[in-house]
Write a structure and sequence with these properties.
Helix content: 25-40%
Order of helices and strands: HEEEEEEE
Shape: globular
Radius of gyration: 26 Å
Number of strands: 7
Number of helices: 1
Length: 121
């Protein structure tokens, strides 16, 4: 009966050691990965006539599925963007749609300032 317990103990020990080696190897792989190049695009949306900040404005990167709405302060931030040039489409009820071209770079720290014109009746 003793050899069976010893054999079971050895198998259990070998499995635990194998799992630990696997875990260490996967952690090493994650550390060697290149740092993320994902960036953010942020800004504020303003009314052309009153210079008021506009809430609830949809901001969308046309070449991606990313879209967001401006907050109560008229501000927005799209995260997880790769460096590059994008067309940004801006929509708001009672305002003319707008599309702007934006270059997102690592050194970009300024906020976009987008001014929308109200639709005249």
């Amino acid at each position: 009966m003793r050899p069976m317990k010893t054999k079971a103990f050895f198998i259990l020990f070998a499995l635990i050691a194998l799992l630990n080696i696997n875990g260490v190897a996967s952690k090493k792989d994650n550390k060697s990965a290149t740092p993320s190049t994902k960036l953010s695009l942020s800004g504020v949306i303003l009314d052309k006539n009153s210079n008021e900040k506009l809430a609830g404005v949809m901001i969308q990167l046309t070449s991606t599925d990313q879209k967001i709405y401006s907050d109560s302060k008229g501000e927005f931030s799209l995260d997880g963007i790769e460096p590059g040039t994008y067309k940004v489409k801006i929509n708001c009820i009672s305002y003319k749609d707008k599309e702007v071209s934006v270059k997102v770079t690592r050194s970009q720290n300024e906020k976009l300032k987008i001014v929308l014109s109200p639709i005249e009746p």
